[in-house]
Amino acid sequence: MEIVDYLRIARRRLWVLLGVPLAAALAVGLFIGLSPQRYTATGYVAAPALVGGAASQQYTGTQAASQFVAAFKAAVTSPRVLDQVAADTGVATGALRDGLAVAQVGASSQLTLTYTAAQRATVEPVLTATARRALDFLFSSQVNIATEQVQAASADVTSATAAIADWEKANKVSQPDKLYQATLTEIANLRQQKLSMEAVGNSRAVAAATSALDAAQKRLDALGPKLPDYQSLLAQRDAATSALSQARQGLQGPGPRPRPRIRPRWRAWATSAPSPGYGHWPPPSRPRPPPGSCWRSCSSSCSNCCPGAPSPRPPPGSPRCSRERRERASEPGDTVSERVGAAASGRSRSAGFAGWRRKTSPSAPHERANPEIR
Fold first, then answer.
1. Helices then strands (H, E): number in the chain?
2. Where is the Polysaccharide chain length determinant N-terminal domain (predicted)?
């Protein structure tokens, strides 16, 4: 058979050649169109305080991250967690098991928890409840132990403080350690005064200092035997306070915090703004001049371009600004150095800057050949 015969047969079976692709395309379109729309949410779980090399942390060693990931995956799909999430959100356990997925981010201890469902209203609540219930399942016992430690340490601090108060009430003295130090300082000062009065021969002052020294020494002798018991009570209170601080730090330390995110793509596009480039006037770092001032590339004395209030900027090479540039360039003594000098002297900042812009603009042929520009 020749090619003509093949074409003749194909023409007879044209409906087959066209019908099969059309039927396949129609079937795919119907499948996509009739399939329910599905929504996906992703949450990030990180546990920096539980994974590391310290002996006090939960997961230690080189396999700490892998151990945490495996434990979290098992907790997410455990019947207890699924039943709790189903009770919180009203979603069936089978749908939760099919829609949940846990993945490790690289080789780190950070995880991504993803949930996919046909109902958008249930995506984020299920994701948040699953992360919270899984973390509670893993670390709730440790939280309870830390809470009990905090309560015990707080009770020790309370009892130590009460013992100190009872001791002060029984001995009728408050803070004897500080009183003892103050009495020692007072005795040293009185002895110095007594020596000074003896040197000048003031017998009355010497007698007063002696009586004061005797009274201070009696107070010191009375406080001395009481200090050991009081210092022991202070040491007990300090130890209880330190234990309470450590227990609170262990309970309130940085733990794993799930952070679900659902961010539309159009919002990510809208948050990015183009950065200003060349051709924008005024520059971003320079404020826009007030109404009535000339801010174009032509001179500030251009009557045609700047008749008063600012109007739309004329396009480059327009007859008005080109004519004014040529007139300004033909004036004697009108050079770039003079304009820069005028701008530096404060005579006309806008005029000097506009003149510099005008002289450096490559729009006119005679300005490109000006040696002062170079």
1. 14, 4
2. 3-88
Query: What region, left, alpha or beta, does residue 201 occupy, with left being phi > 0 and alpha being psi -120 to 50 degrees?
Result: left
Q: How far is CA 261 from CA 114, 211, 265, in A?
A: 10, 80, 12
The residue count of the chain comes to: 374
φ, ψ of residue 2 in degrees (nearest 5): -100, 175
Q: Compute, in degrees rounded to 10, the torsion defined by CA atoms 108, 113, 116, 120.
A: -130
Q: Domain ranges for the chain, please list them.
A: 1-35, 279-374
* Range 346-352, long-range pairs (CB < 8 A, 24+ positions): 348/300, 350/289, 350/293, 350/294, 350/295, 350/300, 351/299, 351/300, 351/301
Tokens of 90: 């009203």
Please give the Cα distance from 277 to 101 (Å, whole number).
Answer: 45
Query: Residue 214's Cα: distance from chain center in Å?
Result: 65
What SS3 class is residue 155?
helix
Angle at 212 between CA 207 and CA 217, to 5 degrees: 125
Q: Residue 299 and residue 301: Cα distance in Å, rounded?
A: 5
| 151-177 per-residue burial string, b: 16 or more CB within 10 A, e: under 16 | eebbebbeebeeebeebeeeeeeeebe
Rounded Cα–Cα distance for residues 177 and 174 (Å): 9
Q: Residue 330: what residue type?
A: S
Which of 332, 331, 330, 289 shows the shortest CA–CA distance to 313? 289
Residue 141 has what DSSP assignment?
H
Q: What is the pLDDT along the chain (374 residues), one digit of tens a residue?
A: 677 777 777 777 777 778 888 888 888 888 777 767 788 888 888 877 677 655 455 677 777 788 888 888 888 989 999 999 999 888 888 889 888 999 888 888 788 899 988 888 888 899 989 988 988 888 877 777 878 888 888 888 899 899 999 988 888 888 888 888 898 999 999 899 889 888 888 888 888 888 998 998 888 888 888 888 888 889 988 998 888 888 887 776 544 444 444 333 333 233 333 344 434 444 444 455 555 544 444 444 444 444 444 445 555 555 555 555 555 555 544 444 444 444 444 444 443 333 434 444 444 444 444 444 33
Q: pTM surpassing 0.70? A: no
Contact 357, 324 (CB under 8 A): no
